[in-house]
Amino acid sequence: MDQLQLRELEARCIQEDQPFCTAACPIHVDVRGFMAAMARGKLLDARRILDRTMPFPALIGRLCDQPCRPFCKRAEVGEPLAIGSLERYCVEHTDTVLKPPKLPAKGGRVVVAGAGLSGMTAALDLSRKGRTVTLLTARDAAGGSLRRRVDVPAEVLAGAVDLLTGYGVRLETDASLTAAVLESLANDHDVLYLDFDDLAPGLVPEGLGRPDPLTLALARPGWFGGGSLAGGGFSLIGQVEAGRRAALTIERSLQQVSLTAQRDLEGARPTRMHTVVDGIAPLAAVVPADPAGGYTDDEARQEAGRCLQCECLECVKQCVYLREYKEYPKTLVRKIFNSETIVQGTRSANRMINGCSLCGQCTVICPNDFPVAEVCRASRRSMVETGHMPPSAHEFALDDMAFSRSEHCRLARHQPGTSTSRYLFYPGCQLVGSVPDTVRRTYELLCAQLPGGVGLLLDCCGIPAHWSGRDDQFTAILDEFTAEVERLGRPTVVVACSSCLWVFGTFAPHVATRSLWEVLAELELPADRPPVPPTVLALHHPCTARRQPELRAGVRALCDRVGLATVEAELAGELADCCGYGGLMQFANPALGSKAAAVKAERSPHPGLAYCAMCRDNLADSGRPVAHLLDYLVAAGDEDDPLARINPGYSERHENRARLRRRLLAELWQETTAEPAGEATLPLVMDPAVRALLDRRHILAEDVRRVIHRAETTGRYLVQPGSDRRLASFRPVRVTYWIEYEPTAAGFVVHNGYSHRMQLPEDTL
Amino acid sequence: MSTFSFIEATEWHCAGCDRPLVPTPVKVSYLHSVFNVELMACPGCGFVYVPESLALGKMLEVEQLLEDK
């Protein structure tokens, strides 16, 4: 990611865009912050917010015509906030809290003719910037048309004048302002600003034209003008905006820089802010019990408390990952950029980058399709390319993938007794790991009914390599896949796993694929299927089906056909959560993976039905009964109730894959393979708690066997006097495993296991 | 280079040498970094004992720090 890409990405996240009220305010008062302070009863904090933006808070706070109010989002659920009344309440109950500094004098002589609110504002802003300002009015006091209003307390107007003179503005009342005087003033000063609100009509010289809307420049160099005649009806805050806009133009003119560059953010404007009000209870406006006396303290707090504090965060509300790291996309990409570009020191975002499930839910939710997954995956790719990928993040998952693709598990065959395949069944590595017998029965069903031969390919599509940013490895796996399909005579690949289906459809689009669900919908299903449960099941779509609506529709149709009553949570289908496996989240951050599974499971109170093996097993881990769709489509086996199956865990998955290959070869193809021998047959005794502990610690049964086998053959282990317990370690490749065990007649009882990556001297032996 | 000590009394004995473990200076390494530490080891064959608390505590912490460098 370079700076430009970072900026483009940051600009797509609207969380920091202005809320509707602030955007609609001609001078962008932080109304949201003001309301938050008011709701807490922090009047001084609220006043500080007004002081920061309003040139004359006591005056404007009382009189603002609140063009922001029609834009208040609360109007959609109640009535808009009484913004003007609350500002009035605030300034009536507080004195000035924040006095913006006056910068050192820096020359530049400015004369403001006409002391209406725009002239006063321009004079104040320029004086604060260190300019010498003279403010002239032909009347006996400043204020322009405000002086004709009955609702402007004299002392408030006097206070505004005091503020001006306090900043060094030279106010001249009863000035003789004629066309000739204006000409002479313009000659004697660098800049002249005309406040039309406080100038006698007919005074203005001919040929000045109307002020330019962006800069308020008139047709003569050094002449600027604004105020009530500048356009439209009289708006008090509009006067303030004109003065502020003029002051900025004049400051730029004195600095001899562009008057027009980058001014698109000034004045009232639309905002991209996206605030969803669904589920927010309507609240009517708080009306003062005594309308003449205005709000009581309590009423003001209550009214301010109705503010929705508009923000977006729509993605964060749903995404367990963004919540965990307390980021929204804009802050997330900045942290990723900073971490990526650090030359020396800690790459502090590594774990965060590897924590994303890459599921893309946030992108669907985002009004600007912010691509968090793409950013995180690109960052992982860059970490891999530059050698900065932490080894512990994905190694276990990649080893698991390598095992699925090894000679122990991988299998590619035409249907027994045939030499061509019109179809090729591709169950995917995790389904085989989870329910090998169901996979076998599915294959037999396909063979019995599909014409032209159904080949079998047991393999992994390589998505773990893709997720971990190892693009070379991923491409090589896909190349092997397409070569295998070619070798088998280009059959249509019947895919059970939605991740595999997405991978093939996206990266090998020339290979013909169909989802298993679509194919099964056309076949006769066996009569001896397990009975469908009498209860309604929550259909959990996997995150990788997000971009495959036809797949989701096919699954729904199949559920209907077999009589599975399903409902879908509000966040399902295109908005489905990831179960924690996506993006290898559960390997890089196991605790977060568990949280993700729990969130997905808890979207619905019903028992679940999944059609992704990883969703099925992870949701089962989170304690909800959950079945796999395939359980109800093929002949019943002697396995547990589909809703009650536990997560087999990593070790069992390995063994399931290897066993299925051996059995299929022996029983369907009559090919004998070597049965496991040597250390692979070492009998282990593990109670479920130890099994679960080792699984969580990513220690496989085969690792345990290696440690024990080596200890028992070399005699190198530790013992405790008076006990048969032994402690041994072994480092097959990159991880040193420690196993505490006890030899018994039934086998080696495993009591504990842990591991570390740090290398001991003897590990190098 | 300073030496960090992780010695703690332990009942584990070396089975091969039939000797108790004693504090021993050891070099441990990860990702091109080498640390001098003191661990319990067999004085006969040098079998180094890494207790569970160390593997899942300080060692893991240092491993993760080094992985983020």
Tell me about this structure.
The complex is a heterodimer of chains A (765) and B (69). Chain A is elongated, with a radius of gyration of 37 Å. Chain A has 6 domains: 18-97 and 274-305, Alpha-helical ferredoxin (Fumarate Reductase Iron-sulfur Protein, Chain B, domain 2, Orthogonal Bundle), CATH 1.10.1060; 109-255, FAD/NAD(P)-binding domain; 314-389, no CATH class; 396-524 and 649-663, no CATH class; 537-632, no CATH class; 678-764, 2-Layer Sandwich (YaeB-like fold). Chain A is built from 31 helices and 19 strands. In chain A, 41% of the residues lie in helices and 11% in strands. In chain B, the strands form 2 sheets. In chain B, strands 1, 4, 5 and 6 form a 4-stranded mixed beta sheet that branches. A two-stranded antiparallel sheet of chain B has the order 2-3. Chain B has 2 helices and 6 strands. Chain B has a single domain (3-67), classed as Ubiquitin-like (UB roll) (Roll), CATH 3.10.20. The chains are: A alpha/beta (765), B alpha+beta (69). The A-B interface holds A 345-348, 350-351, 390-393, 715-721, 726-727, 729, 736, 738, 752, 754-762 and B 11-16, 21, 26-31, 45-50, 52, 55-56, 59-60, 62-65, 67-69.
Structure in a nutshell:
The complex is a heterodimer of chains A (765) and B (69). Chain A is α/β, with parallel strands linked by helices and 765 residues long. Chain A has 31 helices and 19 strands.
Question: What characteristics describe this protein?
Answer:
heterodimer; A: 765 residues; alpha/beta; Fumarate Reductase Iron-sulfur Protein, Chain B, domain 2; FAD/NAD(P)-binding domain; 6 domains; five-stranded mixed sheet; B: 69 residues; alpha+beta; Ubiquitin-like (UB roll); four-stranded mixed sheet; 2 helices; 6 strands; 22% helix
